[in-house]
Amino acid sequence: MTTIVVENGTIVTGANSYVTMAEYIDYAASLNVTITDLQIYRTQLIKAAQFIDGLENVLKGDTVEKTQPMAFPRNNLTDINGWSWDNDEIPTVLKQAQMSLAIDINDGEDLWNLSQSGATGIKREKVDGAVEVEYAVSETGRLPYNSRSQALLMSLMRYNGLGIPLVMS
Question: Which residues are CB-neighbours of 141 under 8 A, at least 6 positions away?
Fold first, then answer.
């Protein structure tokens, strides 16, 4: 049985999540998602945290300790709204991102191989006299991956395309 060990900002040994199951159940309920099999949802929550931790090198700020088990807490962390987070705090937007990613996993999204569009690559290429190229199209009919999760994660990244401050004169 998978156990959730929550990182609360104190660099918890063995931590594997930024949120509790209770927080996740409430979040899912707010989106009309009913959690029935707690074991499956625990696993999805841990996978979402692992995905975020895999982005460690592009996240704002620096890890507090060299050997901390997760990417957060962080030193010198300021979010997109200009809020500074102490190095013993877990940002609310991070918790929301983890829960949103877990919902994406529940909906069948593979976070490590995101569906960017219906095109999945060259299916056939033929050169006789004229060039013919046929592109493969996803058979699943999935829409491009552009979710709330991405927006939440972008606010925690160094190079999110939104780093130019606007100054009114």
Answer: 118
What single DSSP character describes residue 161?
A: S
CA pair distance 135, 92, nearest whole angstrom: 41
The DSSP H or E segment spanning 64 is none
What's the residue count for the chain?
169
Token code pair at residue 62: 């620096």
Domain range summary for the chain, segments of one domain joined by + = 1-109+147-169, 115-145
Token pair 């991102």 in the structure block, residue: 97
Reading phi first (left if > 0) and then psi (alpha if -120 to 50, else beta), residue 17 is in beta
The pLDDT tens digits of the residues spanning 45-73 come to 999 999 999 999 999 999 999 999 999 99
